[in-house]
Amino acid sequence: MPVPPRAHLVPLLAVVALLAVPPPHGSSGTGTVADAASAVLVVCCAVRVVRDRVRPLSRTAAVVLGLPVLGICTAAVASHDPAASLPGVARYLQVFVLVPAAVVLTVRDRRDFAVVAWAVIGLALAQGAVGVAQYLTGTGASYMGEDVRAVGTFGPTDVMGMATVVAYGIVAATGIALGTTGRRSRTWALVCGGLLAVPLVVSFSRGAWIATAGACALLLALCGVRRAVRVGLAAGALGVVLVAGLGIGSQLVQERVASISQVTAAPDRSVTDRYTMWAAAAGMWRAEPLTGVGLKGFPHYRDSHASLALSSGSDTAGAGRGFQRQPLLSPHNMYLLVLGEQGLLGLLTVAGSWLALLGCALRRLADTRRADTRRAGTLPACGLVAVGLLVWQLVDFAYADIGGPATVLTALVLGMAAWWSFAPHRPAGGPATGTGTTGTGTDTGTPAGPVPPRRGAPAPPATAGARHG
């Protein structure tokens, strides 16, 4: 019985699809069905690597993806309570090492990448539809005394979940629209991006707004100034129609946008708490500058480093849940969280891995533009999607950290960026070049493996053994 051509993507697509399943009540963000699916994905890749007996990653990919292991494990061993740090070790390795590596090993070519990107857009549309319905019917999470905040299926305890998924969908759609040559794909990408703008607005997530605007602006700048100006004007017109014309959250949105510039003059309660927790994380780092206070140590050491301006927690309600007080267990800044819990060593290894990944992705994007002369210097859609998603994540990490059911999608995004950076590719009209995973094939969809000689051509000389990777 023949195997379907994209059967190897089933474990990866299952992770994306299961993110639409509402998390159980009282869930802390881990142990969801999507996390279980990510574990299955990692196991499948490990079995394939052992079965094939080949080196799965190039040296560069192994170093960049494996660099966080040094800081994570060192911080766990050096913490005051190593046993309490073990769940943090598992979570960090899942998000920043294992799942991204599994994505690199699973995606074989640009067609596979496109399937995953459209799956993310589909998830964003589904979550966005739920979020818009919540806003229109007043069944969302509580915001400014009204149950109008769009949170999708993630619930009021994870108000960033839907905003993150929708923002991923917008960035992916923007990359496809800018990089694809097919009119149909470009049209669908533009339609999806326009539709997703509505749930992003009514998510009332300032961090997601800023990160989405920054990532899309970068993609437009990479594709040319003229196109950036045209799209910028169109996006501005769409915003005017949505907010001023249709009145989608106009008053609440205006107040939320105005609060972005009031971070020093008259900050609201959430901004004050965030600044206080940032200062607490910096205080933990000053106490343990090299290795930090240990993974999962922020809640334990928070009160001893925070000022009296910190509130006891945030109020959550709505979206089918009753009122409850949500404790503030993280600084809502990934860089400061790593610095406080893992110290300078952790920040250099974990954040250094992200910066190295961004540098490799941008370098490959530039190399592809120079090599592909058939498209007159335009950039490929998969490269734009990968760079845009990675930039979005790095910007958003200044306002948020890992946590919640949507975290596993962050791991997939890092894996998509890693695939673009390290998988082998073939310039226009040339053989595959670069280093990457064994058996991934070229970006154009050509399967990996030897090419049979033409009839009448001399056979290639036998080799003692092929070096993979």
Would you give an account of this structure?
By secondary structure, this protein is mainly alpha-helical. It is 61% helix and 4% strand. A two-stranded antiparallel ribbon has the order 1-2. The longest helix has 38 residues, at 334-371. The two termini are 31 Å apart.
Distance between the termini: 31 Å
Q: Describe the biggest sheet?
A: 2 strands, antiparallel
Number of strands: 4
The amount of beta strand, in percent, is under 5%
The quaternary state of the protein chains shown equals single chain
Instruction: Give the helix/strand class.
Output: mainly alpha
Using only CA atoms, what is the Rg?
23 Å
Shape: globular
- Percent range for helical residues? 55-70%
Strand order of the largest sheet: 1-2
Low-confidence segments, ≥5 residues, pLDDT <50? 426-457, 460-469
Mean pLDDT: 81
Question: What series of H and E elements makes up the topology?
Answer: HHHHHEEHHHHHHHEEHHH
| Number of helices, counting only DSSP H or I runs of 4 residues or more | 15
Q: How would the blueprint of this fold be written?
A:
Blueprint: H1 10-18, H2 33-52, H3 59-78, H4 82-106, H5 110-137, E1 141-143, E2 146-149, H6 159-179, H7 183-201, H8 206-222, H9 225-245, H10 250-260, H11 269-287, H12 298-305, E3 314-318, E4 321-326, H13 334-371, H14 381-396, H15 407-422
Antiparallel strand pairs: 1-2, 3-4
